[in-house]
Amino acid sequence: MVTNTVVLDTQEQQLEDGATPAGGERTVVNSWNEWDRLRHVIVGVATKGCIPVSEPAIEYHFPAEGGIAGLSGQWPRELIDRANHELDNLAAVMRKRGIRVDRPIPIDFDQPVVTPDFNHPSQIGCMPARDVLLTVGNEILEATMSYRARWFEYLAYRPLLQRYFDADPNMVWSAAPKPRLSSASYKKGYFEEINIADYDRIIARANSLDFVTTEAEPLFDAADATRCGKDIFVQHGFTTNRKGVDWLRRHFPDHRIHRVNFHNDPDPVHIDCSLVPLREGLVLANPNRPLVMDSHEQRYFERNGWEVVLAARPAHTRQMPLCYYSVWLSMNFLTVDPKTVIVEETEVYQNEQLDRLGFEVIPIPFRNAYPFGGSIHCATADVYREGKRQDYFPKQ
User: Fold this and answer.
1) Taking residues 229-244, what's their average pLDDT?
2) Has residue 24 been placed in a domain?
3) Is the Cβ–Cβ distance between 249 and 224 less than 8 Å?
4) Three-point CA angle 226, 250, 243, nearest 5°
5) Count helices and strands in the chain by DSSP H and E runs
6) Which of 78, 104, 135, 192 gives a 20 to 30 Å CA spacing to 307?
7) How many domains does the chain have?
8) What does residue 351 show for φ and ψ, rounded to 5 degrees?
9) In this structure, what CATH number is given to the domain that contains residue 326?
């Protein structure tokens, strides 16, 4: 069933300090999977967001018609306002469903990142909360991040995390070891060795697990992990290295941490555009990026009675001019309970498929927010979902 919603006319007021939220709700941190009923969430903001600049971790290739190739600094004000309008509407839609929503406090991202090991001219922003924060049970973990531009991104969320920590005596607040991101963390000349037009060779290199990062130190983005109770699937790719997966395995010893790869994935795309658990027993898979696991785990989902459904094709064959992300953001929606999803309204094929699978589909406009960090799932980070940790894959 498709449900219509309304776009706000004005931006919602952001929390500017650690004040108790309206209604005085008690803060509890608890989230074990991607589908239990959502009660408390962080939604990012586009304010002060900056145009990404190429660095050793990534080479940006903006379409010429976008008009921003070679530029840096803050995004034009008009684009920030459009993105915030859609982010505010996402927050309003969830609040109307009784979900508590918090917002990060942007820092000045239009300033250089300077460390003893590197100097990068600017940062990115705090729209994609999912990239930085990984919630596992009562713990919120700050990821290492693998881009130099994202070194200080966690600071936008610190006021919220401090408030949760003060309010919830059981919350565990962790931060992974801050990486140095020196030249040793990246393969020298990685993006110079190959012509961007030679797509077949780019694909072959990615399929051989030849990525830009080295194994000099643990690196991972939080959005490379998808949670299914006792099992956490972590994508090894352009933003997470093997050592990062190993660090997560040691950090969460009571979980089964699975390192996964996806064939034909030559871009720094997180797992939530390739493998999306919808509810217990049902997972959506990217038909263009087959899942690769260790040989004894290759049929892990099927062996445990899960149905694997191939995602519908994206509605857009090309991404919008200002956006460098994959068209498979079509899969990047948010499940708010086992029967309800919030989706980007123009992704009609994906939305029709979710409707056929029995979900209440809530479409909202979100494409203006894409250039600031992705789609709806990217823009959110769980604080509280109902439910406890369960073992959804007992057949090992």
Assistant:
1) 97
2) no
3) no
4) 75
5) 7, 18
6) 135
7) 1
8) -65, -40
9) 3.75.10.10
94 φ/ψ angles, rounded to the nearest 5 degrees: -70, -40
Cβ partners under 8 Å of residue 358, min gap 6:
339
Q: Edge-to-edge strands of the sheet including 291-292?
A: 225-228, 231-235, 256-262, 291-292
Give the list of residues 6+ apart from residue 34 with CB closer than 8 angstroms, or none. 226, 227, 228, 276, 277, 335
| In a domain? residue 179 | yes
**Single pTM value for the model:** 0.92
Strand partners, 233: 226, 258
User: Quick check: is 18 in a domain?
Assistant: no
Is the pLDDT at 8 greater than 80, yes or no? no
Mean pLDDT of 169-186: 98
**pLDDT 10s digits, 227-236:** 999 999 999 9
pLDDT tens track for 335-364: 999 999 999 999 999 999 999 999 999 999
User: So what's the pLDDT on residue 9?
Assistant: 35
Whether the Cβ atoms of residue 48 and residue 84 lie closer than 8 Å to each other: no
State how far the Cα of 285 lies from the Cα of 272, in Å rounded to an integer. Answer: 10
- Hunting for tokens 């990246």 — which residue is that? 186
Nearest-angstrom CA–CA distance, 5 and 25? 25
Residue 96 has pLDDT above 90, yes or no: yes
Establish if 99 belongs to a structural domain.
yes
Query: Which tokens hold the place of 186?
Result: 């990246």
The residue-averaged pLDDT of 379-391 equals 98
Which pLDDT score is estimated for 11? 35
Residue 358: which domain range? 38-385
**Catalytically active residues, by annotation:** 221, 270, 378
Could you give the C-alpha distances from 197 to 139, 201, 208, in angstroms and in order?
Answer: 43, 9, 19
- Amino acid sitting at position 154: Y
Tokens of 103: 């917002």
